[in-house]
Amino acid sequence: MDLREEARLLMVRRHFLAATGRTLGCAALAALLGEESRAAGPTGDSPHAAGPHFRPKARRVIYLCQAGAPSQVDLFDAKPGLKEKFGDELPSSVRGEQRLTGMTANQGKFPIAPSHFEFRRHGQSGMWLSDVLPHTARVADDLCLIRSLHTEAINHDPATTFIQTGSQSAGRPAFGAWLSYGLGSENHDLPTFVVLISRPSGKTNAQPLHERMWGAGFLPSRHQGVRFSSGRDPVLYLSNPDGMTDARRRRMLDDVARLNELHFREVPDPEIRSRIAQYELAYRMQSAVPELADLSREPEATFSRYGPESRKPGTFAANCVLARRLAERGVRFIQLYHRGWDQHTDLPSGIRSQCYDTDQPSAALIEDLKARGMLDDTLVVWGGEFGRTVFSQGTLTRENHGRDHHPRCFSVWMAGGGVRPGHVHGETDEFSYNITRDPVHVHDLHATMLHLLGLDHTRLTFHFQGRDFRLTDVAGTLVPGLVS
């Protein structure tokens, strides 16, 4: 078959329709640059980025995603009055007609389970925090605690997908991909969007994570997250195999790039150029990543600050150190997942184990960034995909219980990057079941995070399948109370 005819047959329908809508003379240029310039604003630090719409407060994000849904009742939303209501039935007027999961919908009773942990005020702000978070309590005055976040999904996969991408349905770009698209990179040798996944130290019910949660969706694929692992090769297949020298690798990439350029002339698909760019980035990462991932160069004070687990590759503590090193090198968006917060049973022991993994490193990251003068322009976010019910799932005893999923209200904290420090936003009822003041939807959270990064969420758009998509879909409102 003629190669030109074969290339034409390989063109997918959307590329054909896009190409026929432009003149032949500017088809390639429009495919490469037209979609990338839809987010209006000044030129950014990347030739493909639109740049910020206004002066940003933050330059980068470290998102400490606690997958599985931490219980706000046991960590951030103090309800001392529940001690006297142990075992009482949660009033039906409180539950209303709200949706329950299949795990508790058929329970005969909904007994109130007060937290096993005591809450105390901390810092000059007097922020109430659980005793199971002694290190987080130390940085209370740096935190902006949202107690009134709510979401739409009630099960893990759609809820995690929603808080990561702004949609419960798979296929949308992740927050980090949108940020890469909107602002570009500050480091030529590392990805703009990096993903780290830590291992819980205790026995946990760890929900699975899917790569689409850090995918680029319909954005050019170079904006997707790159996962770093804790093995000998932080990025799989990055190292040269035996017998492959750097010079041979360079010649091979040059030859492949020439072939891809020939293909692009026949099929003006922007993904061909994305493929070339990704190959080149991988080549540069071969020298940048080993130095980045080598924590042996960190002083002893670093490991003392982040805790005993920080010397163990793949732990949350070690990944927090790595996240700080990535931020120092200009990576825009660092997504650190820690699984295991899904405590349907054995919650008291499960919460203690999870906080052992995450409490000291999270606080250490705040202190470390602050000491290096980086907290002011680094937005740190800590939280899960929804909250936990005040009533017990299954049998309630004085020593043990579990909690089910609860999307109606949950807590997330942010620090640095222009947020209001030492501030508590929103309130819930006496049962931490319904929001009573200043609700914040997930779309509102995303709109506010983008605002801190200098981006108007209504203007950061990408044209796809006949409409302009955005992270916040058709909703979302800036929450001024969260901004300093």
What does this 3D model show about the protein?
This protein has helices spanning 3-10, 13-20, 27-34, 72-75, 92-95, 134-138, 156-165, 175-183, 246-266, 270-293, 300-306, 316-328, 347-371, 442-452, and strands spanning 60-66, 119-122, 127-130, 143-150, 193-198, 226-228, 333-338, 378-383, 387-393, 402-406, 410-415, 423-425, 427-428, 435-437, 440-441, 461-464, 467-470. The chain is an alpha/beta fold and 484 residues long. The chain folds into 2 domains: 1-37, no CATH class; 50-236 and 302-482, Alkaline Phosphatase, subunit A (3-Layer(aba) Sandwich), CATH 3.40.720.10. Strands 1, 4, 5, 6, 7, 8, 11, 12 and 15 form a 9-stranded mixed sheet that branches. A two-stranded antiparallel ribbon has the order 2-3. A two-stranded antiparallel sheet has the order 9-10. Strand 16 and strand 17 form a beta hairpin. Mean pLDDT is 88; it is low at 1-7 and 12-48.
Concise overview:
This protein has 14 helices and 17 strands.
Throw out a few tags for this protein.
single chain, 484 residues, alpha/beta, Alkaline Phosphatase, subunit A, 2 domains, nine-stranded mixed beta sheet, two-stranded antiparallel sheet, 14 helices, 32% helix, 17% strand, globular, disordered N terminus
